[in-house]
Design goal:
The structure holds 2 protein chains of 2 kinds. Chain A has helices at about 10-35, 55-60, 60-95, 100-110, 115-130, 135-160, 165-170, 175-205, 210-215, 220-230, 235-270. Chain A is an all-alpha fold. Chain A has a single domain (about 60-270), classed as MetI-like (MetI-like fold, Orthogonal Bundle), CATH 1.10.3720.10. Chain B is α+β, with helices and mostly antiparallel strands. Chain B has 9 helices and 20 strands. In chain B, the strands form 4 sheets. In chain B, strands 6-7-8-3-9-10 form a 6-stranded mixed β-sheet, sandwiched between helices. In chain B, strands 13-12-11-14-20 form a 5-stranded antiparallel β-sheet, with no helix packed on it. A 5-stranded antiparallel β-sheet of chain B has the order 15-19-16-17-18, with no helix packed on it. Chain B starts with 7 loop residues before the first strand and ends with a strand. Classes of the chains: A mainly alpha, B alpha+beta. The interface of A and B includes residues 170 and 183 of A. Bound molecules: adenosine-5'-triphosphate and magnesium ion. Magnesium ion binds near residues 46 and 47 of chain B.
Chain lengths: ~270, ~375
């Protein structure tokens, strides 16, 4: 007998399925960097020739960089604020006995299932009725609303996953609530916080519908890209930008997974 | 200042969780430097009482005083207590030294003093050289010691321990029991120790509170609990005990005349309230207070005849089960007399005599049905 258990036995059908699945998932994405080096404004086979001119075109496209910067700013603000709210929420939900908790949870998680277009229109009405001018701030507001449930969903397992006597031990050893949070709770949930920051940033970064409704004159990157689709000459530049974003996201995801695995090892093997 | 005898005073303390009464009106005084155990089966409220002492729960009614001061307004970090958690609660993101030094931040000690105190404490719990390890690189016994060290470095006046040895194997457990006891004696700290293991409680404690369903059934030294339990429940919980049903026939000048089903008519001195003429009760006797013999010798005053059902021999001691007329439970007998065990062992189903000394029998109230 070989060293194979029932679970670990190789399974050819499953293997082929996994291959097809991965191909389906990634081949379209890989066309992006591929065509960004194609010397033609038309995105079609066969390749005409290798060029980096789209990258230099992108480099000189100032409105696109402005939109990228807008998206980064909105994403940054959204992820920090939504995660902060998520931390408070997750702590409250997991640590305190309070009346009406299920109802509160339901309301917090509701934006997950409300279609973005409905949220967008609803927010637009509220914002314009109350006389607030549309701007990146209103976009950020909308994104926070969308991201808080994701932040909560990421953070709650982290808070639930560690023994609350850990916090009691800190209090017992002389720390008040504030220091207990900073010396014990925060370091232990830190990987969750990081995951939530990344997730919220990603969601905000590529969110289109709400941004479309709520943006003023400054577009975010998805809005800018959408507006450029009408001009075929601009498209390869968008591809170049997309390819770059892809590379950056790849490293971010690898880094966050590495962090998650490293820390969950820590937590589980310490027998909590 | 309160006296040393009532250093900790738990007065009429109850704790309700909604409809659940976790702790039911407990009052007890604990002396300075005492090793006091809370003993009881799972769910009887031991942890809840300990957590009220630590300040993690507040009593529904009643008050806890430590050194004469009421504790209800004091948060955990302002109490002179420290706790060793059942799960140890070692901080996973800190190494051993950092774990042990955790409580020193609020004491505002210099770096040198902090270091020397950590070294001292590491030595105290025999973990010198382990300072740089992560908590996941430690064995259960070592983790237990860190939890202990982390509390001890605060120089607590009262150390609360929630089943600290529960997760350890038997050998390590016995080693740690000895270490805990000698530590407690050398440091002079008041220990309040939760356990559900009666042997552990008896070995370690100065006094024990036997708990059941939130109530303290009896509080006393291990010897008191063993020799004069106040109820069938306590008697059953501490060591092994034989019980027979009994009826009080008469009480005269502090001595009850009792008819038992199994041990015949007996006399037991008693001052208990329930011991009235006609009252029903239970008579109890420890297995080692029963003597077994093949023949009735003339000297025996208190004796009944029975049938030997089973016998087990363990070298220097032997255990028997003997059925007696009137009792459906066989009587357990533990004997250290080697004359039977060594040579002529007894055969099953042979008639034997059980006898006991005056004062070996205990009269207990009928347990509530
Ligand atoms: N936070 C709580 N909410 C509701 N009920 C509780 C809570 N804490 C304890 N209880 C209940 O109070 C009772 C006593 O619990 P406690 O933890 O004190 O028992 P214990 O004696 O420590 O048991 P064990 O030996 O199993 O640890 C139990 O019935 C338990 O279910
Ligand atoms: Mg408990």
């Amino acid at each position: 007998m070989k060293e194979t258990t029932y679970i670990k036995r190789p399974n050819r059908t499953l293997f082929i399925y996994a291959l097809i699945y991965l191909a389906f998932l990634y081949i379209p994405v890989l066309f992006l960097p591929l065509f960004s080096f194609n010397d033609s404004i038309y995105i079609a086979f066969p390749f005409v020739g290798f060029t980096t001119k789209w990258y230099s075109q992108m480099y000189h496209n100032e409105p696109m960089f402005a939109a990228l910067l807008n998206s980064i700013r909105v994403g940054g603000a959204t992820s920090v604020i939504a995660t902060l709210l998520g931390v408070f929420g997750a702590k409250a939900v997991t640590r305190y006995r309070m009346p009406g908790k299920p109802v509160a949870m339901f309301i917090i998680m509701l934006p997950l299932v409300i279609p973005g277009i409905i949220m967008g229109v609803a927010l637009l009405i509220v914002v314009s009725r109350s006389g607030i001018p549309l701007s990146l701030y209103t976009v950020t507001l909308g994104h926070i609303l969308v991201c808080v449930p994701f932040a909560m969903a990421t953070l709650i397992p982290r808070f639930e996953g560690f023994d609350r006597s850990m916090e009691e031990a800190a209090a017992d050893l002389g720390e008040n609530a504030w220091w207990t949070f900073w010396r014990v709770t925060f370091p232990i949930v830190f990987p969750g916080i990081l995951a939530s920051l990344l997730l919220c940033f990603t969601i905000s970064f590529d969110e289109f519908i709400m941004a479309f409704f709520l943006a003023g004159t400054d577009p975010t990157l998805p809005i800018y890209i959408f507006s450029q689709l009408r001009f075929p000459a601009k498209l390869p530049g968008v591809l170049a930008m997309g390819a770059l974003i892809l590379v950056v996201s790849f490293f971010v995801v690898v880094f966050s997974q590495w962090l998650r695995l490293r820390n969950s090892n820590d937590i589980t093997s310490s027998g909590i | 200042m309160s006296g040393d005898e009532s250093y900790i005073q738990i007065s009429d303390v109850s704790k309700h969780f909604g409809p659940v009464v976790a702790v039911d009106n407990i009052s007890v005084s604990i002396a300075r430097g005492e090793f006091f155990s809370l003993l009881g089966s799972s769910g009887c409220g031991k942890t809840t009482l300990l957590r009220m002492l630590a300040g993690f729960e507040s009593p529904t009614t009643g008050e806890i005083y430590i050194d004469g001061l009421p504790m209800s307004e004091k948060a955990p970090h302002h109490r002179p207590t420290n706790m060793v958690f059942q799960s140890y609660a070692i901080f996973p993101h800190l190494d051993v030294r950092q774990n042990i030094a955790f409580g020193l931040r609020t004491e505002k000690v210099s770096k040198e003093e902090a270091n020397s105190r950590v070294d001292e404490t590491l030595e105290l719990v025999k973990l010198t050289g382990f300072g740089d390890r992560r908590s996941n690189e430690l064995s259960g016994g070592q983790r237990q010691r860190i939890a202990l060290a982390r509390a001890l470095i605060k120089h607590p006046k009262v150390l609360l321990l929630d089943e600290p040895l529960g997760a350890l194997d038997k050998k390590l457990r016995e080693e740690m029991q000895i270490e805990l006891r000698s530590l407690q004696q050398s440091l002079g700290i008041t220990f309040i120790f939760v356990t559900h293991d009666q042997e552990e409680a008896i070995t370690l404690s100065d006094r024990i509170a036997v708990m059941s369903e939130g109530k303290a059934l009896q509080i006393g030294s291990p010897k008191d609990l063993y020799n004069t339990p106040v109820s069938v429940e306590v008697a059953d919980f501490i060591g092994q005990m034989n019980f027979v049903d009994a009826e009080v026939l008469d009480v005269k000048s502090g001595v009850a005349v009792i008819d038992t089903s199994g041990l015949g008519k007996v006399k037991i001195p008693t001052s208990a309230d329930f011991a009235q003429k006609g009252a029903r009760g239970v008579v109890a006797i420890r297995p080692e207070k029963l003597k077994i013999s093949e023949k009735k010798s003339g000297a025996l005053k208190n004796a009944v005849e029975g049938t030997l059902k089973s016998a087990s021999y363990y070298g220097n001691r032997s255990h028997y089960h003997v059925t007696v007329e009137g009792s459906d439970q066989p009587m357990a007998v533990a004997s250290q007399e080697v004359d039977i065990a060594s040579g002529n062992t007894l055969d099953s189903d042979t008639p034997v005599w059980l006898s006991w000394e005056d004062g070996a029998l205990i009269l207990l109230p009928q347990p509530p049905a």
